[in-house]
Write a structure and sequence with these properties.
Elements: E1 18-22, H1 24-27, H2 38-43, H3 45-51, E2 55-58, H4 86-98, E3 102-107, H5 117-124, E4 137-138, E5 161-163, E6 169-171, H6 186-202, E7 206-209, H7 248-259, E8 266-269, H8 276-281, E9 290-291, H9 295-298, H10 303-317, E10 325-327, H11 336-339, H12 343-359, E11 363-367, H13 387-391, H14 436-440, H15 446-456, E12 468-469, E13 476-480, E14 485-490, E15 496-497, E16 502-506, E17 514-515, E18 519-524
Parallel strand pairs: 1-2, 1-11, 2-3, 3-7, 7-8, 8-9, 10-11
Antiparallel strand pairs: 4-6, 5-6, 12-13, 13-14, 14-18, 15-17, 16-18
Helix pairs in contact: 6-7, 12-15
This protein binds alpha-D-glucopyranose (GLC).
The site of alpha-D-glucopyranose has 10 residues, from loops.
């Protein structure tokens, strides 16, 4: 298959694309310090081209003190030395484009790092000063102002407010090292536009927008309805005033207006909004091109649950110009091999889930290591780094388990990820068979399944929007795409007969015309 070089104009190239999420710290280390970097990504472009992905989403690589591993950005228009430098980024972009792979990057507008020069200036400036007006500095409540200004919790645990020596408090929906920016201040909006242009001018193909539903706060910052689960990842109801405020849409229109000045660029939002209609508002023609739909990522392994996830996602996009956008795993959630039970069962289900995800109409995001069937790792307490671990008072282990470096080759740590065994998170023993090298020659491996699936997905059977649900045995899901592809997923406790058609790909052995338990097949009708 010849790739289309991104230099040619292919409007809406993203509508059916497979994006590959590179968690930069964990993908590949090109410099031998145990931390993944831009050089590592560049060196693995041939692998990504062979895998057949259309585009990358690279997680934040900007200067950062790393209190949230790069999601605390000290300078949104630079490169963190641990990850490389600007010429290195340009070289990566050029090489990727030459191979027909588009490159999108993370935009972290909701907050900055406490090391951002604006925040340093704010701390050094008095209450009420313009420097403080870029953030949310407020006087406290209570007789001496020694209680936080409102009752908002931080997503990472504890209050969303921290007090500074002169007695004021500042808002941080995440860690105290991530102060929230105030987008009612035109200077803050103008700076975001400058960041967009900075990277668009360099040639990036788009952005993934972090916490896209959180960038606007309600005037007066009133108390919210106390929530049991304070996470960004909860099904936040309308009482959670931290997120999904109506005026956030005006900001997305500003972002879109900048993107529209450049041909063929796109943005996908991290929008943790579960109400189909409210989520669809982010996908109006002058807002985001795509919004992650996290329903697959949060669905239990069951026919009803998965069907509901698919239907909600399709209903969400139906009234919008956007295609659906499917996610099974990312750097914030347990990997799906583990979610589905781990071990052999988890892997079997993950293979079937991959065929479900890649058969659905729209966009698919593959998290680095999905294609190898990586599970989460049970890490010992002393190596945990996620701020959630500390902020929760060691009650929640956080997200490190899904961020362990990717194994490339060899039989022991660091499995070709780095030249040092001292990787930023330790890699477990026994991962030799999981490495990309070991899986490459094996027709039955997860990697081979993904390669075949991605190649087939480019064919005419996968054309067209929407799905037609087909009659299927109990506990099974079956649907047809307008182009003719039929996908059957067997979530029942027994093998079921193959539907009619020619088998294109199966996630597990089809014996005597039976689709195995936890198996999926693709057929052309
Ligand atoms: C998003 C990111 C997550 C990060 C948070 C704060 O949810 O995906 O990794 O911790 O935003 O930036």
């Amino acid at each position: 298959m010849t790739a289309v070089p991104p230099t040619t104009t292919t409007p809406d190239w993203w509508r059916e694309a497979v994006f590959y999420q590179v968690y930069v710290r964990s993908f590949a280390d090109g410099t031998g310090d145990g931390v993944g970097d831009l050089a590592g990504i560049r060196a693995h472009l041939p692998y990504l081209a062979e895998l057949g992905v259309d585009a990358l989403w690279i997680t934040p690589f900007y200067p950062s003190p790393m209190h949230d591993h790069g999601y605390d950005v000290a300078d949104p228009r630079g490169v963190e030395p641990v990850f490389g430098d600007l010429p290195g980024f340009d070289a990566l972009l050029a090489d990727a484009h030459e191979r027909g792979i588009r490159v999108t990057i993370d935009l972290v507008p909701n907050h900055s790092s406490h090391d951002h020069e604006w925040f340093t200036e704010a701390l050094a400036s008095p209450p009420g000063s313009p420097a403080r007006a870029r953030y949310f500095f407020r006087d406290g409540s209570g007789p001496h102002g020694d209680s936080p200004p409102n009752n908002w919790p931080s997503v990472f645990g504890g209050p969303a407010w921290t007090r500074v020596p002169d007695g004021q408090w500042y808002l941080h929906l995440f860690a105290p090292e991530q102060p929230d920016l105030d987008y009612s201040n035109p200077e803050v909006v103008a700076d975001l536009e400058e960041t967009l242009r900075f990277w668009l001018d360099r040639g990036v193909d788009g952005f993934r927008i972090d916490v896209a539903h959180g960038m606007a706060k309600p005037p007066g910052l009133p108390d919210m309805v106390p929530a049991e689960d304070t996470g960004l990842f909860a099904d936040d109801g309308p009482g959670d005033l931290r997120f999904d405020q109506d005026h956030v849409h005006a900001l997305h229109r500003r972002v879109r207006a900048v993107l529209d000045q450049y041909p063929d660029r796109m943005a996908v939002g991290e929008v943790w909004v579960f109400d189909d209609e409210r989520l669809s508002h982010y996908l109006r023609p002058d807002e985001l091109h795509l919004a992650f739909n996290f329903r697959l990522l949060t669905a239990e392994w069951g026919a009803d649950e998965l069907r509901a996830a698919v239907e909600h996602s399709l209903n969400t996009v139906a009234p919008t110009p956007a295609p659906a956008c499917w996610v099974l795993s990312n750097h914030d959630r347990p990997r799906h091999v583990t979610r589905y039970g781990g071990g052999e069962v988890g892997t079997r289900r993950a293979r079937a889930a991959a065929l479900l995800q890649l058969a659905l109409p729209g966009v698919a995001y593959v998290y680095n290591g999905d294609e190898l069937g990586m599970p989460d790792v049970d890490l010992p307490d002393e190596v945990l780094q996620d701020p959630i671990w500390e902020r929760s008072g060691h009650t929640e282990r956080g997200r490190d388990g899904c961020r362990v470096p990717v194994p490339w080759s060899g039989d022991e740590p660091p499995y070709g990820f780095s030249s040092t065994a001292d990787t930023w998170l330790p890699m477990p023993p026994g991962w030799g068979p999981l490495t990309a090298a070991a899986q490459t020659g094996d027709a039955d491996s997860m990697l081979s399944l993904y390669r075949e699936a991605l190649a087939l997905r480019r064919g005419p059977a996968f054309r067209g929007d929407g799905v037609e649900w087909l009659p299927a045995p109990d506990g099974c899901l079956a649907f047809r795409r307008p182009g003719g592809l039929v996908c059957l997923l067997n979530l029942s406790p027994a093998p079921v007969p193959l539907p009619e058609g020619q088998v294109l790909l199966a996630s597990g052995p089809v014996v005597d015309g039976q689709v195995p338990v936890d198996g999926a097949v693709w057929l052309s009708a």
